[in-house]
Every structure is written in structure tokens, then in C-alpha cells.
Amino acid sequence: MPDVRLTKASSDDAPVLFELLKQLAHDLGKQQEFRGSLASLLSYGFTSPAAFEAIIAWRGKTPLGFILFFSEFSTWRGSPGIYVQDLFVAAEARGCGLAAKLTAAAIEQGRQHGASYMRLSVHNSNEQAFGFYQALGFRPAANETVLVLEGERFDGLSPEQV
Length: 162
Prior knowledge:
Layout: E1 4-8, H1 14-27, H2 38-45, E2 53-59, E3 62-74, E4 79-89, H3 98-111, E5 118-120, H4 127-136, H5 151-155
């Protein structure tokens, strides 16, 4: 896609990023579970320190996709890495290599901060994504399962209570 440009998202792009996130939730059939907001993007992604970074793909003034990621650290590897929270390409731009380009741009950004690896999770039902990531060289993390603690259980856990 020669007429596509990638830009690091700024606070001015937060409304576009929010709309793309809603499209991602819709495409995954998870719109009822999506609790994100424009305010949370602005509060956590475009302040210091930022909780995440994002890169948006554009054709002219039309957003075609994005990748949202953040820094992490692996004690096992002894180095920083990046974790991809979301990767999305609009239906009309799929199959043109844009997801790979966004992934490579995030890796390049991570390398600037010393990252030596990239991690991500894939929805079990998203077989197309599994194929895409495997084609790039990703492999399942051996002996790992993603776990989540949230809601009341998260809010109610403190050192005094355990």
C-alpha cells in the first residue's frame, strides 16, 4: 500500500483511535464487552508517563488501522519488550500487508527503548489472526496461559486482606 502513511498517535488522534477500537470490538463480536472510552484514552495514553503508544495507518485523511502497545520487562529474558494490546485493520484494507507493516513499526518503536521481543494474546476464535501471527514467526508461549483479575476481586484485594 504505497499511499499509506503510518503516524504515532497523538492526543489529537484519540477520537480516531477510539472509533477504530469500537470497530475492532464489533468485528470480534465483543461490542457488549467493550468498556473503553475517549476519556480513558486521553487520560492514560497521552499523558506522562503514557500507559500505551499507538501507531495509526492512514490513506489521506482516512484511518485504515492501528496497533496499540506498551512496554513490559521480562526477568527471564533480562530485557524489555513490548506487548501488543490491539491490532486492527479495516476490512477494506485487509490483505495488503498493512497489519505486518503496523507490527514492524511497533517493533521499530520498541527497539528505540531497548525492546528485544514482542508479546501478544489472540482471541481463541480469531483463526485468521493466528495464521497471520504464525506467518510472521510468532509462536505460542510454552507453558503459559493468560490470566486476568478484574472488577470486585481486583478492587477488593489488598495486602491487609490476604
